[in-house]
Amino acid sequence: MQKIIENLVALQTVDTKLYEIEMLRGDLPKQVESLKAELSELQEEIDSDKSSVKTFQSERSGLENEQALNSEKLTKYQDQLYKATSNREYEATSSQIEFCEQETNRIKTRMTEIDLKVMELEEGLKPKEEKLSALQANFKERENELNQKVEETSKEEADLKNKRAAIVPLIRKDIVNKYERIRSAKNGLAVAPIIRDCCGGCFNQVPPQIIIELRKRDAIRTCEFCGRIMYYEKTEEAVAQG
Ligand SMILES: [Zn+2]
Predict the structure, then answer these.
(1) Segment 66-107, tens digit of pLDDT
(2) How many A from CA of 14 to the centre of ligand 1?
(3) How far is CA 90 from CA 41, 81, 100, 110, 177, in A?
(4) What is the pLDDT of residues 31-65, one digit of tens each?
(5) pTM for this prediction
(6) Looking at the structure, do residues 221 and 112 belong to the same domain, yes or no?
(7) How far, in Å, from the CA of 193 to the mean position of ligand 1?
(8) 234-237: long-range contacts (C-beta < 8 A, 24 or more apart)?
(9) Which domain holds residue 196?
(10) How much distance in Å is there from the Cα of 168 to the middle of ligand 1?
(11) How many A from CA of 218 to the centre of ligand 1?
C-alpha cells in the first residue's frame, strides 16, 4: 500500500509539472488555432469574391464583343434603310434596326449591372485584404511566441511524459482511473498532502482517526470534503513529532 501511495504522489508531482507547462503556454495554442481558422475563412471569402469579379469581367468582355457585332449590324441596317427600294424592304430593315437597338439596351443594362457589382465587390475586398494582412501578422506573432514557449519547455515536457509512462503501469488500473477522475474534476490536483492536520487540497480539517490511518500509510483515504486522495508526508511527521 505504501508503494501505491508513493507512486501516486510521484504521478501527481509529474502531472503538476506538466500542468504548469500547460499554464505557461497559456491559451496561446487556442489563440493560434482560432486565428488560423479565422484566416482561412477570410481567405476563402476573398478568393470567392475575386473569382466572382473574374466571372463578371469575362461576362462583360463577352458583352463587349456582342455589342461590337450589334453596332456593326446596326450601321449596316441603317445604311440599308436609306437604300430601301420598297416598303416591304423598308419595314423589314426597320424591324431589324429596332431589334438591334433593343439588343443595345439589353447589353448596356447588363454591363451597368456588372460594373456596379464589380465595384461593390472590389470595394468590399479592400478592407477584407487589410484585415487579412493584419490577421496574418498577428497569427505569425502568436505562432512564433507559441513555438518559442514549446521549444523552451519541450525537453522538460518529453522527460515528464516519459516519467509518467513509467509510473502509470506501476499503479492498479482502477486506482489510476480514480486518480484521473479526481484530477480532472479538481483542477489537476488529485493527490494532496496533509498539512497541519488539514487536507492540502481544500484545507479542511481531517479527523484524527483518519490522520492515524494515513500515518500508517496502509490505506487509500480520500478527503470527505473535496474527494482528493490524501497522504501523510514524512516531513509532516517530523513537524508533528517536533
Ligand atoms: Zn480536501
Answers:
(1) 999 999 999 999 999 999 899 999 999 999 999 999 999 999
(2) 20
(3) 61, 6, 15, 30, 98
(4) 999 999 999 999 999 999 999 999 999 999 999 99
(5) 0.63
(6) no
(7) 10
(8) 236/193, 236/194, 236/195
(9) 173-241
(10) 23
(11) 19
Q: Which residue has the cell 501578422?
A: 137
Q: Looking at the domain assignment, is residue 20 inside a domain? A: no
Residues with CB under 5 A from ligand 1 (ion): 199, 201-202, 223, 225-226
Q: Is residue 156 helix, strand or coil?
A: helix
pLDDT band, very low/low/confident/very high, at 216 (cuts 50, 70, 90): confident
> What's the number of domains the chain is made of?
2
Q: Is residue 163 part of a domain?
A: no
CATH number at residue 116: 1.10.287
Q: How far is the CA of 197 from the centre of ligand 1 (A)?
A: 11
Whether 84 and 184 share a structural domain: no
Using an 8 Å Cβ cutoff, are 160 and 17 in contact?
yes
Please check whether residues 34 and 123 belong to one and the same domain.
yes
Whether residues 147 and 178 share a domain: the answer is: no
Say yes or no: 115 and 41 in one domain: yes
